[in-house]
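Problem 12. The chain below contains 76 residues. Write out its predicted structure in C-alpha coordinate notation.
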Amino acid sequence: MKRPWKPWYPKHKGVLPERRVLERGAARELLTTWEADQNKEAIDKMLARMDKRYGEGAEQRIRHYMREIRRNERVA
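Solution.
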Protein backbone atom coordinates (compact mmCIF):
# COMPACT_ATOMS: atom_id res chain seq x y z
CA MET A 1 0.00 0.00 0.00
CA LYS A 2 1.32 3.40 -0.98
CA ARG A 3 1.62 5.90 1.84
CA PRO A 4 0.19 9.43 1.42
CA TRP A 5 2.50 12.20 0.26
CA LYS A 6 3.96 14.45 2.93
CA PRO A 7 6.19 17.43 2.30
CA TRP A 8 9.82 16.93 3.31
CA TYR A 9 9.99 20.33 4.97
CA PRO A 10 8.32 21.25 8.26
CA LYS A 11 5.07 23.13 7.98
CA HIS A 12 5.26 26.80 8.90
CA LYS A 13 3.01 27.38 11.92
CA GLY A 14 3.55 31.06 12.70
CA VAL A 15 2.84 34.33 11.01
CA LEU A 16 4.34 34.44 7.53
CA PRO A 17 7.29 36.86 7.38
CA GLU A 18 5.91 38.76 4.39
CA ARG A 19 6.72 42.26 5.62
CA ARG A 20 10.34 41.34 6.32
CA VAL A 21 10.72 39.83 2.84
CA LEU A 22 9.12 42.87 1.19
CA GLU A 23 11.27 45.28 3.19
CA ARG A 24 14.46 43.39 2.28
CA GLY A 25 13.43 43.56 -1.38
CA ALA A 26 12.86 47.30 -1.08
CA ALA A 27 16.26 47.62 0.60
CA ARG A 28 17.94 45.80 -2.30
CA GLU A 29 16.19 48.07 -4.78
CA LEU A 30 17.14 51.24 -2.90
CA LEU A 31 20.73 50.08 -2.42
CA THR A 32 21.09 49.41 -6.15
CA THR A 33 19.61 52.84 -6.90
CA TRP A 34 22.01 54.44 -4.42
CA GLU A 35 25.01 52.67 -5.96
CA ALA A 36 24.00 53.83 -9.43
CA ASP A 37 22.99 57.45 -8.73
CA GLN A 38 24.42 58.51 -5.34
CA ASN A 39 21.34 60.77 -5.01
CA LYS A 40 20.60 61.13 -1.30
CA GLU A 41 17.46 63.26 -1.73
CA ALA A 42 15.79 60.69 -3.98
CA ILE A 43 16.63 57.85 -1.58
CA ASP A 44 15.25 59.85 1.37
CA LYS A 45 11.99 60.49 -0.53
CA MET A 46 11.69 56.81 -1.40
CA LEU A 47 12.33 55.83 2.21
CA ALA A 48 9.63 58.26 3.40
CA ARG A 49 7.17 56.53 1.07
CA MET A 50 8.25 53.15 2.43
CA ASP A 51 7.47 54.40 5.93
CA LYS A 52 3.91 55.09 4.79
CA ARG A 53 3.63 51.76 3.00
CA TYR A 54 5.07 49.39 5.63
CA GLY A 55 4.20 51.27 8.81
CA GLU A 56 6.03 53.03 11.60
CA GLY A 57 9.74 52.32 11.81
CA ALA A 58 10.00 50.92 8.30
CA GLU A 59 12.55 53.55 7.31
CA GLN A 60 14.94 52.46 10.06
CA ARG A 61 14.39 48.76 9.32
CA ILE A 62 15.02 49.25 5.60
CA ARG A 63 18.15 51.30 6.30
CA HIS A 64 19.34 48.48 8.57
CA TYR A 65 18.68 45.91 5.82
CA MET A 66 20.55 48.12 3.32
CA ARG A 67 23.59 48.21 5.61
CA GLU A 68 23.38 44.47 6.21
CA ILE A 69 23.14 43.68 2.47
CA ARG A 70 26.01 46.03 1.66
CA ARG A 71 28.28 44.48 4.31
CA ASN A 72 27.45 40.83 3.77
CA GLU A 73 26.28 40.33 0.20
CA ARG A 74 27.90 42.99 -1.97
CA VAL A 75 31.57 42.71 -2.87
CA ALA A 76 33.29 46.09 -2.91
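Discussion. The radius of gyration is 18 Å. Students who got a different answer should revisit the alignment rule from Section 12.3.
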